[in-house]
Amino acid sequence: MGNQDFFYERKKGLLLTPEGEAIVQHAERVIERERQIQERLEAQDGVVRGTLKIACASIVAQMWLPRVLKEFIKAYPDVHISVVTGWSSEIHQALVDGSAHVGIVRGNIAWKSVHKPLFQDKLFLVDKEINRLEDVLDSERPFIQFQSDSNYYQVIQDYWQRNYGKMPRQAMVMDQIETCRQMAFNGIGFAILPEVTLMDASDDIHKIPLVDKTGEILSRDTSLIGYEQSLALPQVKAFLGIVDKYLESHN
């Protein structure tokens, strides 16, 4: 059977026919099945190698995960690492379809298998000018927010309504938390950011904790989730051990 049965010829290259797409999909399933068998064999041997596949919330992947992976690579240099980032819904799907062994998510997420709390992030109002929460509602400074698929916005909205009766003036909405962070760090306006994003904040930036009327500081949870079968793999168990050591040494 010739190539014409699997490809359409185009000026800029070849395009798969439906028959060609079917063959590619079959090959991908065979490769994935072979990978799963290899992982099971390695799990039986207790050998720490193979690939560690992590799906992680973007801000955690930027600010926290590299420090953990640095220690992991030192301890287990034979393990290959794959990291994808995204919103919680995308991380959830990556676990369901098997493209990730573990997921690291922000906020509350409905997950019926293994759910391991990692750390709590205190929330801070960050600005170069405002240095008291009480001044926010009278300020003309723009409130810079970022989009999220979690309940982050609702948490902030509830806080302002509960403590001040209304929301600050909203002027900017960024599609990424890093853009929001850079806007605040460069004096464009104020933002509400988790503590994990403030590790490299300069001294001229005011960082005001969001304290509730009860005296509690508003915070966000970061958790590790996964299926028991995946978490039993040697490379995943090794990663969990490194995570525990890192958290113990940074509390």
Mean pLDDT: 84
Total E-strand runs: 11
Give the CA-CA distance, first to last residue: 64 Å
Radius of gyration: 23 Å
Quaternary structure of the protein: single chain
Overall geometry: globular
The CATH class of the largest domain: Alpha Beta
GO biological process, one term: regulation of DNA-templated transcription
Domain LysR substrate-binding: 47-243
Keywords: Transcription, Transcription regulation
Family: Belongs to the LysR transcriptional regulatory family.
In a few lines, what is going on in this structure?
The chain has 251 residues and is α/β, with parallel strands linked by helices. It is built from 8 helices and 11 strands. The protein has helices at residues 18-45, 58-63, 65-75, 88-96, 152-164, 177-185, 228-231, 234-249, and strands at 7-10, 13-16, 50-57, 79-86, 102-106, 114-127, 143-146, 170-174, 190-194, 206-209, 219-226.
Search tags:
two-stranded antiparallel ribbon; transcription regulation; alpha/beta; LysR_subst-bd; 3 domains; LysR family transcriptional regulator; 251 residues; D-Maltodextrin-Binding Protein, domain 2; transcription; globular; nine-stranded mixed beta sheet
